[in-house]
Amino acid sequence: AATRLGAAESVLGSLADARASLARAADARARAAEAHSARDRVIAAMTAYRLEASFDQTLAGTYRQVTELMEDRGLV
Q1: Residue range of the domain that includes 28
Q2: What's the whole-model pTM score?
Q3: Residue 18 pLDDT exceeds 80
Q4: Which of 70, 58, 57 is nearest to 15 (CA)?
Q5: Pick from 48, 20, 69: nearest CA to 61
Q6: pLDDT in the model for residue 8
Q7: Chain-centre distance of CA 10, in angstroms?
Q8: Structural domain count of the chain
Q9: Residue 22 binned pLDDT confidence (cut-offs 50, 70, 90)
Q10: What is the pLDDT of residue 2?
């Protein structure tokens, strides 16, 4: 039970990290849309892209963790 609790806490932490990353990406996209120079637009767009890639990786990892928990519980 302690192992599952730790795994569940890890999943929740991963989801919180993913949410924060997605929020930062949205902020970067907004900065890109409002930028006054091409340089600032490119920097903000690159930042958003990196944050979205990080979000995707976190989400994929979280999916694997949840799938493993579900398999352990016989839910899959």
Answers
A1: 2-72
A2: 0.79
A3: yes
A4: 58
A5: 69
A6: 87
A7: 13
A8: 1
A9: very high
A10: 79
72, two tokens? 């352990």
Q: Residue 39: CA atoms inside 13 Å, Cβ hemisphere, count?
A: 0
The Cα 46–Cα 18 span in angstroms is: 18
For the segment 33-46, the average pLDDT, to the nearest whole number, is 96
Tell me what pLDDT residue 67 has: 93
9, two tokens: 């806490």
Q: What is the DSSP string of the chain?
A: -HHHHHHHHHHHHHHHHHHHHHHHHHHHHHHHHH-SSHHHHHHHHHHHHHHHHHHHHHHHHHHHHHHHHHHHTT--
Non-local (6+) Cβ contacts of 60 within 8 A are: none
> How far is residue 75's CA from residue 15's CA, in Å, rounded to a whole number?
21
